[in-house]
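Per-residue structure
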Amino acid sequence: MINIILVGVNGKMGQVICRILEENNTAQVVCGIDINTERKNGFPVYSSFDDVSEECDVIIDFSHPSSLENTLSYCVKNKKAAVIATTGLSAQQIDSIEAVSKEIPVFFSANMSLGVNLLIQLAKKATALLEDNFDIEIIEKHHNLKIDAPSGTALAIADAINDTCTHSNEYIYDRHSMRKKRSKNEIGIHSLRGGTIVGEHSVIFAGNDEIIELKHTASSKEIFAVGAVKAASFVADKAPGLYNMDNLIEGIC
């Protein structure tokens, strides 16, 4: 049985993870960390890692960027594996994740969905075949309460495509102020916000007389929670290093 400390336990994603783990015989939450210390799930909830006495194998952080430093510090001090599922992290915070991964195993992904990460792999394969003759555009859609734009997932897709290309591309986020034709060395990234859209990402390869589109649609937040639980099981006994969904998918395949 894998023992988990869940940071952000009383948030929406934290509660989805708790519900999933109630039906999971291989992992359990031993305690939670949250600014809201209400005990909703039968295990203790603390406002700080300073109060934690429970033993765990891995920490899942599905909270807020402001919690990252405390999570990483606890993991390094206690030599525990970490799954960082928080979005909206700064470049400096990502550097911190990479730095601590030299001391502990860290699983970090901009999107915890297996399906989204499969989409990224397919986009890389398509790019390798099509980049010379196709323009590449990314469209992402989310609910009207999402703060950041473009989404971290859209940027992860763009980065994967850019790394695959034989030339460097410029990211273009908005064209309304431009009066010029599209450059071949650019990737368009477009954000839509409305309603209760959980998440939708499309990668469009537009060529002469043909269009190829790769698309992933999330119908609920549960897919991200399932991915985080799988990541926790995957990374719990790993050696120090930085792991991501590519490693998990390779392990499954």
In short: The CA atoms of residues 42 and 200 lie 34 Å apart. The longest strand covers residues 199-207. Helices lie at 12-21, 68-78, 91-100, 114-130, 152-164, 222-235, 245-252. The chain has seven helices and twelve strands.
